[in-house]
Amino acid sequence: TGTNDHQLICCLHSLSFLFLRLGEGLVVIPEAVLSEPILALLNRVPATGPSSRDPILHTSVEALATWIAWSLRCLARSLPSHLLHLLSVLLNMTTIDHAELATAKPNTNVVPYLEALLAHSQSLASLVTVISESRRGVPHDITSAVLTTAKSLITQTGGPPAVACIRKECGWRLMEAMLVMGTEWAGSRLTTLFALWKQVLGKKGMEGISAADPNLHLELRSRLGGLYALRAFVTSCSSLLTSQLLKPIVLFLSNTLVWT
Predict the structure, then answer these.
(1) What is the DSSP letter of 55?
(2) What three-state secondary structure class fits 45?
(3) pLDDT in tens, 138-150
(4) Residue 18 and residue 197: Cα distance in Å, rounded?
(5) Residues near 170 by Cβ (< 8 Å), separated by ≥ 6?
């Protein structure tokens, strides 16, 4: 119920505070004791609340998923030795969600898959932002796999507009988190990044979409994800902002501001 969701959020808030306050003092507690209850709760997110709803508008699910993601981030920041395991688990969950959506039959109720993808990708993105802070770092294979998953979510076509929108939003959320790693990571991937931005921000205004289109808010939500990632790039990779790169960035922003 909604009340239970609020109670869980209060518990997660307190737990996150304890993680940050205790820091590496948590090392005496077994990893499973710290992370498994939160991961188990994360897997229950799609089952909370009413069984029939619009996953895009159901704020209770998103609020609970946000606090779970924050709790995992606080745990990874306090105990860097847990980061790799948590990244691997959440990457696997997100990949499975994406595969289940891609292979779902036309009449399948995909709401649980969508909500699972939203929740798992949000936690994965939250953990990715810790990588640049970690003294231990993570293997290249992990960041490469996250990038591959993000690209697949952003570029996959087909399916109902709402499903496509959520896939893209989850992909851009992961991309935004990856860009927080800064110049060293983004510098060798500029071609890929700008090709993805061109796909979502290259259209002038709402080209091909009327103001009365019922899917207009989905287009705007997808565009917003690309803008968030672009903001992360400008903020975290300012040394890469040559005049050559500023031209397409200005064009992307101009396209967003022009309404036709």
Answers:
(1) T
(2) helix
(3) 999 999 999 999 9
(4) 39
(5) 94, 117, 118, 121, 122, 153
